[in-house]
Amino acid sequence: MTARPVIDAQHVDLTFRTGDGPVQALRDVSLRIDKGDFVSFIGPSGCGKTTFLRCIAGLETPTGGTLEVNGLSPEEARKSRAYGYVFQAAGLYPWRTIAGNIKLPLEIMGFPKADQDARVEKVLDLVDLTGFGRKFPWQLSGGMQQRASIARALAFDAGILLMDEPFGALDEIVRDRLNEELLRLWAATEKTIGFVTHSIPEAVYLSTRIVVMSPRPGRITDVIESPLPRERPLEIRDTPEFIAIAHRVREGLRAGHEA
Q: Where's the ABC transporter domain (predicted)?
């Protein structure tokens, strides 16, 4: 018997109503994401990558097709705290310490204070920020702030982690390090991850599957299953296997533009 997918999208459409008329953001998007998958979405700006991630999160509502998260509607899954969400900007409150920022969703959910403290310590360790809980966001580098944002999304231990270009604003050296750390974190937690990126090397390095999307209206033009091992040093990017996957992603993006 096949296990139920964590995320199951079938023929999803989304059309926004605007003052200038309807705008179709997504067209006929079908995708299955299984437990423990690391799926990256890549495509040109405005292709619907983030919109589809927001549909999974119950922040946008499709106008056609079906979408289930853990067998529930996205809205029901959101209410059941099925996922953590990491935005492109860290979004930390400057008047709260790092620990205070991480605790915020736990406070809202009513976790006991002792449990909050234990969870904060655990996730700070996971993202290699042990000892920084009493610091304020302005005392941390951009990369450290983004790690704190990831820790906040992990704090209530949801099985799904949705990440919308979390490293897009960081320089390449910091981005490389955080990519390595994210793979380590994924191996340690066995989360199911949906990851939006504009970077072909990042998508290939991180993912078990890469979903290539066309310009608006967003359609899936290719789904690439990665043959790379789960343990991936940065040097793997120089191998023929990595380069071949990157070439296929690039071809898929080019074909989407020409379609």
A: 9-236
Q: What is the pLDDT of residues 3-56, one digit of tens each?
A: 789 999 999 999 998 888 888 999 999 999 999 999 999 998 888 899 999 999
- CATH T-level topology, domain 7-82+159-258: Rossmann fold (3.40.50)
pTM of the predicted protein model: 0.90
What is the pLDDT of the chain when averaged over all its residues? 91
CB 193 within 8 Å of CB 53: no
Domain with CATH 3.40.50.300 in the chain: 7-82+159-258
Q: What is the mean pLDDT of residues 55-73?
A: 95
